[in-house]
Design goal:
single chain; mainly alpha; Rhomboid-like fold; 3 strands; about 0% strand; elongated; protease; serine-type endopeptidase activity; hydrolase
Length: about 325
């Protein structure tokens, strides 16, 4: 996205090269010390592991669903899809689930986001478990392909700890807003977490603005991608509130977790011999610290308000998250 290469030694390399050129005019300039071998690229493993976990969860969901073992009356007399091939894992008829998946009752029993059970019965664990459930094969593939496309690059840049936190907390934020706005249906899916990664990409661009080479091109590209994905929420029967909740959570978390040193900063562990200490820059700019504090405060305030204080009870139904 037009980002300059940056590591603990990045700014130092640029200044050492400048010093080498200056040495041609100043013979007595001190020789710069070698900066060590280049850092190896991080191999993403958490994102593929999360994808695998989602597929395993879906397989278990279909096993529990057991369409052939249910009464034909429960599926309108229709035959299960691929019943002879998949057996117990066969999909419900399209009249029951058009996304090639289980019944609403199965999803609810395994931890779908059910407003009434979360607020009135105190089953707040559903705010997390619903992120790992999917309404059907179409739903699962759409989310996991997007997750691989976005998540692998982010994990390679920032590591598995930060991206894992972003995924889980953004998924929770999406579930929270979904509970606020959708009180008559159940909701499942990882799209809240996915939109959290998109939100984090936007805040990462903003807080690390000085290290981008093509700033406005990168910003425009990212905004177009976000707008297209948010537009999916307009489609009927898609839980757009989970998208927005996840996006806002990820956007705030990005300021906290994905802050980078400003361009030209050198770690004191890698300062070469003879380097002019007057050229050493602070690790972060003032605006980065301000955004970090504001985002952290907003996150803490949002998480400390009990769900029951935000909403009032209603009913029940079915809704995938895009």
């Amino acid at each position: 996205m037009g980002k300059r290469a940056l590591s603990g030694n990045a700014g130092g390399s640029a200044d050492v090269e400048a010093g080498a050129r200056a040495q041609q005019h100043h013979p007595h300039h001190l020789q710069a010390a070698p900066l060590g071998p280049p850092e190896t690229a991080w191999v993403a493993w958490l994102v593929p592991a999360f994808v695998l976990a989602n597929f395993v969860a879906f397989a278990y969901t279909m096993y529990v669903n057991d369409c052939p073992g249910s009464s034909p009356a429960d599926r309108g007399g229709e035959r299960c899809i691929l019943q002879d091939t998949l057996g117990r894992f066969a999909f419900e008829p399209l009249v029951v689930n058009p996304l090639f998946g289980p019944t609403t009752q199965t999803l609810d029993s395994l931890g779908a986001l059910d407003y009434k059970k979360v607020v009135e019965e105190g089953e707040e664990w559903r705010l997390f478990t619903c992120v790992w459930l999917h309404a059907g094969v179409v739903h699962l593939l759409a989310n996991m392909l997007s997750f691989l496309f976005i998540g692998v690059r982010l994990e390679q840049e920032f590591g598995f700890v930060k991206i894992g936190m972003l995924y889980v907390i953004s998924g929770f934020g999406g579930s929270l807003l979904s509970s606020l706005s959708i009180q008559s249906k159940i909701s499942v899916g990882a799209s809240g977490a996915l939109f959290g990664l998109l939100g984090a990409m936007l805040s990462e661009l903003i807080t690390n603005w000085t290290i981008y080479a093509n700033k406005f091109a990168a910003l425009l590209t990212l905004l177009v991608i976000i707008a297209i994905n948010l537009a999916v929420g307009i489609i009927p029967h898609v839980d757009s509130s989970a998208h927005i909740g996840g996006f806002v959570s990820g956007f705030l978390l990005g300021f906290v977790l994905l802050i980078r040193p400003q361009f030209g900063w050198i770690s004191r562990n890698h300062i070469p011999a003879g380097y002019d200490m007057d050229l050493v820059k602070p690790k972060h700019k003032v605006y980065q610290y301000l955004l970090w504090i504001i985002a952290l405060v907003l996150l803490v305030i949002g998480r400390r308000i009990p769900l029951s204080k935000w909403v009032t009870p209603n009913g029940y139904g079915f809704l995938p998250r895009g």
